[in-house]
Automatic annotation (TrEMBL):
This protein's name: VanW-like protein
Annotated source species: Peptoanaerobacter stomatis
Biased composition (Polar residues): 53-74
Keywords for this protein: Signal
Signal peptide start and end residues: 1-27
């Protein structure tokens, strides 16, 4: 359109120029032959009209340019509007982000209605977004979550609650471990707590959160029924540099660890540790009044440590015999020898179950603990008399008129 307008304008200008030129030439050629004024010719051409027409053409050109500009602007606006609509439609098709705050993970204020206490938990210490993915999913570090959950439970638990001990079965075995628990201890429903935190993080809801504690009343009631107390504990020291002996001691102790004895059930040491026999190593043993190398050295230290624990617990001792030579890890008169021909035997003479645990301490010691029902716990008095190679061990149990005696007669070492 611009080209047409310009073409028209040029044609007009050319016509005007031709007319004007011809008019001048005509006047010059006839100047001598006529008296007609020159301006007559200009009157015939009517220059005012030419200027008007030229001006109109210019106006038409300007209007055309402005019209083209207006049309171009309108076309640009239409394209922009169309692009915006396409972008809006594209945005509508995109999946929405998980959060409304650009994956921010903040701090939750936790509270407990029962105690009135509050706790500020920095959730980003256990939760995070996996930015390796295009739309990062919310993830939880299970180890960190367990650690911080335990800290939260400890914070809300009353520090002055009574602690009790109770036996807990170890998996599908017939062994038990002794657990320490506080009555009324705060325990969080971890699954519920985790889900609530994750849901709130996704929608950026950081309003105060009530901690979902488990109702412990029924749990505490069941634990109280099985509560146990420590009856006795006895420790002896061993030489950790003697690797064969140490290995035998550890094997025997761990085999006994977690033993439960029902009322009137008997414990036979050799039978109890028989599963470890194929793995026993060589160490010092007493044979013919001499310390010599032999298989199973160290088993007598385990039986001796257990004997003293049972002695101080009040359990019934059915059979015990001393070594032929005194040993270094207990006072004379307090040892219990075992061998292929001799066993150490005791019995649960209480109305309730008893539990035996073993532990190997960091300072080269082993310990046996005996637990039972609080009602069965007795005050025990133990003492020893004797000198040289003969000793008598005495035990007096609360409520019994019988004074028990255990004899030890040692021999002189052979050369």
């Amino acid at each position: 359109m611009k080209r047409n307008i310009l073409k028209t304008a040029l044609c007009v200008l050319a016509s005007v120029s031709t007319i004007f030129s011809n008019s001048i030439a005509f006047a010059d050629n006839n100047a001598e032959k006529t008296d007609t004024p020159v301006n007559t010719v200009y009157e015939d051409i009517k220059p005012d009209k030419v200027e008007t027409e030229f001006s109109n053409e210019n106006n038409n050109i300007q209007e055309g340019i402005e019209s083209n500009q207006k049309n171009a602007t309108t076309e640009k606006q239409l394209k922009e509007e169309s692009s915006e609509k396409k972008e809006d439609m594209s945005q509508a098709d995109k999946p929405k982000l998980e959060t409304v705050n650009n994956y921010f993970i903040g701090t939750f204020r936790l509270y407990d209605e029962q105690t009135g206490k509050i706790y500020d938990f920095q959730a980003n210490k256990a939760f995070t977004y996996d930015y390796k993915q295009k739309l990062p999913p919310l993830k939880v570090d299970e180890w960190s979550f367990d650690v911080f959950t335990a800290q939260i439970e400890d914070y809300f638990t009353n520090k002055h609650l009574k602690e009790i001990l109770y036996p807990q079965k170890i998996g599908n075995t017939n062994k038990y471990k002794i657990i320490t628990k506080k009555l009324g201890e705060k325990k969080i429903d971890k699954a519920k707590f985790k889900n609530e935190l994750m849901n709130r993080i996704r929608i950026a809801d950081y309003t105060p959160l009530k901690v979902p504690f488990i109702n412990n009343e029924q749990i505490d009631s069941n634990i109280l029924k099985n509560e146990v107390v420590l009856f006795s504990s006895y420790t002896t020291k061993y030489n950790a540099y003697d690797t064969g002996r140490t290995s035998n001691i550890v094997l025997a102790g761990e085999e006994i660890n977690g033993t439960k004895l029902a009322p009137n059930e008997q414990f036979k040491y050799n039978t109890r540790i028989s599963p470890i026999y194929p793995n026993l190593r060589t160490a010092k043993v007493i044979l013919n009044n001499k310390f010599v190398e032999g298989t199973g050295g160290g088993l007598c230290q385990v039986s001796t440590t257990l004997f003293n624990a049972t002695l101080e617990s009040g359990l019934q001792i059915d059979h015990r015999r001393c070594h032929t030579l005194p040993v270094h890890y207990v006072p004379r008169g307090r040892d219990a020898m075992v061998s292929d021909y001799n066993d150490f035997v005791f019995r649960n003479n209480f109305p309730h179950d008893i539990y035996i645990t073993y532990q190997r301490n960091a300072n080269d010691e082993i310990t046996f603990n005996i637990y039972g029902n609080r009602a069965d716990k007795k005050n025990i008095k133990i003492w020893t008399s004797g000198r040289g190679l003969s000793y008598v061990l005495y035990r007096a149990i609360e409520g019994s008129t019988v004074e028990e005696k255990f004899y030890s007669n040692y021999q002189t070492p052979s050369n």
